[in-house]
Amino acid sequence: MPQRLVIIGSGFAGMYAALSAARLREAKNVSPSDLEIALVAPEPTLVVRPRLYEPNPETLTAPLGELLKAIEVTYVQGCVEAIDTQGRSLEAVTTSGARTSLGYDRLVIATGSRLFRPEIPGLAEHAFSVDQLDDAIKLDRHLASLAGRPASKARNTVVVAGGGFTGIEAATEMPLRLRKVLGADTQIRVVIVERGATVAPDMGTEARPVIEKALREIGIESLAGVGVAGLDANGVTLSNGRHIETETVIWAAGIRAAPLTAQIPGQRDKLGRLLVDRDLRVPEVPGVFATGDAAKAACDDIGNYALMSCQHATRLGAFAGNNAAAELLGVPTQPYHQKAYVTCLDLGDAGAVFTRGWGREVELVGAKAKAYKKEINTVWIYPPRAERAAALASADPALVTNL
């Protein structure tokens, strides 16, 4: 009897789940008519989300249509609105408003994450972000529009709320982006506001001084131990009462699992991620796997968990797709593991910093790290070419991003 594996999401985890499931199906000489693999997403497109802090974000996508055809994965256009885990079906809405239902034998939740936006006065009306493609395009157009506004301190000032990975990359790119719009001699002010005790709180004691030095070199101010209390048309008010005049506030203060994960009746962590076992199953819900930013997954046996990053999402996706297909094909699953971990943080004109391991040991800084970052951003994280054998080979769970 034909079976169907459904993957929700076309991000890094969803793409690799589809590739890996198709790889195992072919390795076991199973026909697509006996095991259908379907990917549901609003568009057959990968948004290269790690690059959305860069200019021209509308160019930072990669088409998946030909790739999915090459590996015989069915693309279903739509945004999933409802999941019935007891009836093993889901309902999606197309861009035209039409509704479609789809049954499944196994389901992979690869719905990613969204920026956390708390109920701060004025945040929804006055803040920009680089979270989703539409957000990044809106910010890019706003920055371009500044050239037509009267010169002022507010026009030339950017406040970035959040001193983590995304906030630092957005902030360090701002001086170059603004000077291209306003002129090379324009006095630009960029301020990072971080509620925690330091910027780059997760980067460790070895990498943090490198980052702080880079921020000083390119003239970026850091205000730690203070949060955003409110925004208005004239600027941002901080939790200590200080007001900064600005026409550009970028919110980058944390992410949460996409809301659709709340429809799965499983346990979740404080970020909304579904708790999964080592095969990436949601234990409480038969037939459902979670992956990427939707899953809290143990990377090893010593207490490290996958982070919400494309590096973890690609490998998580490969294991989830393989294991969901393996259950349907009656072959052994492969427990997820990811002992290796690196970070490469873009620091704008100051280069970058490359670290290895959970302790963030610094290996490269400055121009050498920047070259590595460029290679990651422009080559490594893009989809494989739409050639069947090469695409399927790229999705071996044991090899994906095994740095």
From TrEMBL:
FAD/NAD(P)-binding domain span: 4-315
Family assignment from sequence similarity: Belongs to the NADH dehydrogenase family.
Protein source organism: Dongia sedimenti
Protein name: NAD(P)/FAD-dependent oxidoreductase
Domain of life: Bacteria
InterPro entries on file: FAD/NAD-bd_sf (IPR036188), FAD/NAD-binding_dom (IPR023753), NDH-2 (IPR045024)
Keywords for the protein's UniProt record, in alphabetical order: FAD, Flavoprotein, NAD, Oxidoreductase
Pfam family, one: Pyr_redox_2
A single MF term (Gene Ontology): oxidoreductase activity
EC number: 1.6.5.-
Keyword Repeat carried by entry: no
